[in-house]
Amino acid sequence: MKARVPTGATRLNGMFLCPGWDRDVYYCSSGTVARIRAESL
Question: What confidence score (pLDDT) does residue 10 get?
Answer without folding.
Answer: 67
